Structure formats: structure tokens, C-alpha cells
DNA sequence: AACGTAAGCAACCGCATATCG
DNA sequence: TCGATATGCGGTTGCTTACGT
């Protein structure tokens, strides 16, 4: 014989949690810890399945949760980790104490994907975006009578992106003397003002994060318009090739 | 003010893997 | 070792809120 079934679904409550349910779950876990999720609702007096309790605790009730918006640094780190790990949200979340996989996944799907597209980067492959392909994706994801609206928005965003990047490139070119070097890191070319290679190599050896000030663009993009400013970006990787 | 649409997010579903008896 | 179940993960759904007309 194996284990007992997770839960009897008949009669179990579903949908949003009430304040009272949250209080019961939190009180129970803080007093007793988690031995077996299947037993938690039973002992805590909840008409929920263990799976639902686990999710509620991990994504909402855990006292060590870090709430609030994602910082620019966190977003850049998520992008870097996604380049290496793909949609392995729990692995990505393990690099962010207090953040949940669900939170990061939601943020990726609602914010970062759009941001990358605006920067001309395919959010799936992290390669320079084939505009025609992206247009097709947009066409597929929107009904025909919405297409005119989408194209309208896209034009505006492309213009604003251009302004931003021109500003970045001008700034970078005008302060050429401050640029210490250009490095090739994973799939990105990184133009840095303060990259300390010794510190970088140490961080790689130790598997820790590394921050720098500068700009980056996807490897293989020849256009200067692909440069993206990344001030005080925090990057974390497990492999590196670089060129001076 | 009312309605429609989009965005954000919490929660659920189903599958893969780990674990137990 | 094997079958049954628990757990964890990623994809998806659907509700709520914000925004635009």
C-alpha cells in the first residue's frame, strides 16, 4: 500500500482565501511547523486541500516574503537567469530570497516580456528580435479588429525606444574615455565603465552575483541601436568568456 | 456615469518526480 | 522492486482593479 490520498475533494472550499482562513493557517504553521501538508488543513480547521494550503503559505503568508515592486536590478537579474535557465521559475526564484516562483513568473509574463520586446530582444530565445516574426506573433495573439490598435501602439513604443537608445549611445560615445572595456558575457556584449575583471572572476569562482555600470546588447547585433543601458545592473552567471 | 477592455495577480490544474509502505 | 500517493513545478484561468472611451 502507498500513502493516503491527498484529500477528499468533496466539500472542500476553493477560490480566494478569507482573513479568517489566513489567520488559521498562519497560526497553525507558526505553532506547529509543517510536517505533512495533507494533515495541515485537518489540524488547522480548514476546509481546503493541503495543496491549496501549501500554495497560500508559500505565495502569500510566509513571514519572510519580500513584498513590493521589482527593482531594476532584480529585473535585470531575472533576465540574466532566464537566459540560462529558461522557464524554470523555482530555480530562478531561489536566487531571490523572499520572492516566490509565482511572483516572478507573473512579473515575467506581464512586464519583462514586453520590456524585452521593446528592447528588440526575443523573450524566449534572448536573441535580437526578428521584427517580422514578432509582428506575426502579435497578429496571432490579437483578433483582426484589434490589429489596427496594436500596430498603432507598436509604432509609438518603437519611437520612444529609439529616443532612449540614441540617448544612451550618445552618452556612451561622448564618455568614451570612461569606458574601460567591452566584454563578451554569455549571450551579451557588455560595455562597462567600472567592470573589475578580478572581482568578476572571483564572483564566478564563488558563484556569487556581480554588479557593474554600463550598457549591454545581445551578441551578434551589429547595430549600435541594440545597446541598452544597464546602470548598476546586477548579473549572476556560472560561465563566462570575455574579450578586451 | 456607465460601459468595455487591458493589466495584474492569486489560485487552480495537471503533469513529473519523490517518497512511502 | 513496485504501485500508490504526496509534493513541487510550470502553465493557465479567472477575478479584481485600473484605465480609456
UniProtKB/TrEMBL annotation:
Residue intervals of the HTH myb-type domain: 9-61, 62-116
Region (Disordered): 125-151
Major subcellular location class: nucleus
Entry keyword DNA-binding: yes
UniProt cross-references to SUPFAM superfamilies, sorted A to Z: Homeodomain-like
Classification via Pfam families: Myb_DNA-binding (PF00249)
PANTHER family on file: F14D16.11-RELATED
Name of the featured protein: Myb-related protein 315-like protein
Amino acid at each position: 500500500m502507498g500513502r493516503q490520498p491527498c484529500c477528499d475533494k468533496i466539500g472542500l472550499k476553493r477560490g480566494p482565501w478569507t482573513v479568517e482562513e489566513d489567520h488559521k493557517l498562519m497560526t497553525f504553521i507558526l505553532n506547529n511547523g509543517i510536517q505533512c501538508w495533507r494533515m495541515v488543513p485537518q489540524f488547522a480547521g480548514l476546509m481546503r486541500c493541503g495543496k491549496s494550503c501549501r500554495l497560500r503559505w508559500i505565495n502569500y503568508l510566509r513571514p519572510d516574503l519580500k513584498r513590493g515592486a521589482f527593482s531594476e536590478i532584480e529585473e535585470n537579474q531575472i533576465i540574466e537567469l532566464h537566459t540560462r535557465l529558461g522557464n524554470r521559475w523555482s530555480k530562478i526564484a531561489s536566487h531571490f530570497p523572499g520572492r516566490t516562483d509565482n511572483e516572478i513568473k507573473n512579473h515575467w509574463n506581464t512586464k519583462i516580456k514586453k520590456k524585452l520586446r521593446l528592447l528588440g530582444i526575443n523573450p524566449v530565445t534572448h536573441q535580437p528580435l526578428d521584427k517580422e516574426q514578432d509582428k506575426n506573433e502579435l497578429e496571432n495573439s490579437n483578433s483582426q479588429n484589434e490589429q489596427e490598435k496594436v500596430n498603432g501602439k507598436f509604432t509609438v513604443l518603437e519611437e520612444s525606444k529609439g529616443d532612449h537608445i540614441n540617448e544612451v549611445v550618445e552618452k556612451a560615445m561622448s564618455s568614451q574615455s570612461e569606458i574601460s572595456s567591452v566584454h563578451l558575457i554569455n549571450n551579451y556584449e557588455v560595455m562597462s565603465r567600472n567592470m573589475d575583471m578580478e572581482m568578476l572572476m572571483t564572483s564566478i569562482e564563488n558563484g556569487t552575483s556581480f554588479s557593474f555600470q554600463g550598457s549591454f546588447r545581445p551578441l551578434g547585433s551589429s547595430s549600435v541601436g541594440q545597446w541598452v543601458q544597464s546602470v548598476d545592473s546586477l548579473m549572476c552567471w556560472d560561465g563566462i568568456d570575455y574579450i578586451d
